[in-house]
Write a structure and sequence with these properties.
Elements (H helix, E strand, L loop, with lengths): L1 E9 L19 E10 L14 E7 L2 E2 L4 E2 L2 E6 L10 E4 L3 E5 L5 E5 L10 H19 L3
Length: 142
């Protein structure tokens, strides 16, 4: 943990230059003369120009009285980066799994067959067809 004394502290650490419709509704603010305590996972001290994902909390407001003058206090806690699953499974059955790709398409995949002395090609094909129909009925809109 380190305490950073910032003369001018911009609450948005780093924004990329791409235009986004949501950015227009953001309220930008510059905190003047504030104390920032950082709790970081990756670095001992914040590095200039590096983006950190985390939560910024305002612990106390500035106090300006006759004998007391205290700057606002903020705490930044770096969070664990969350990794989104690339192609999540939307159906996991006995014979078939279906994944949804980034472009929205559904991809059915067959699980490995268990071939033993009781295996019947016709029975297997009918059971796979039935499971695939049940899965796609709930996933595909008409």
């Amino acid at each position: 943990m380190s305490v950073v004394r910032a003369g001018i502290f911009n609450t948005i650490f780093k924004m990329n230059n791409t235009r986004n419709a949501n950015i227009e509704s953001w309220k930008r603010n510059t905190e003047l003369g504030c104390d920032v305590k950082t709790i970081l996972r990756s670095d001992r001290h914040m590095k200039t120009g590096k983006a950190y994902q985390g939560v910024l909390t305002r612990d106390s407001d500035a106090i300006t009285e006759e004998y007391i003058s205290r700057d606002p206090h903020l705490t930044f806690v770096e969070t664990i980066p969350q990794i989104a699953k690339r192609n999540p499974r939307v159906f996991d059955g006995e014979f078939v799994t279906i994944t949804r790709h980034d472009d929205g398409t559904l991809r059915p995949n067959l699980k490995p067959m268990r071939v033993d002395r009781y295996f019947s090609v016709d029975d297997y094909a009918i059971r796979v067809m039935g499971e695939l129909r049940r899965a796609l009925k709930g996933l595909v809109e008409r």
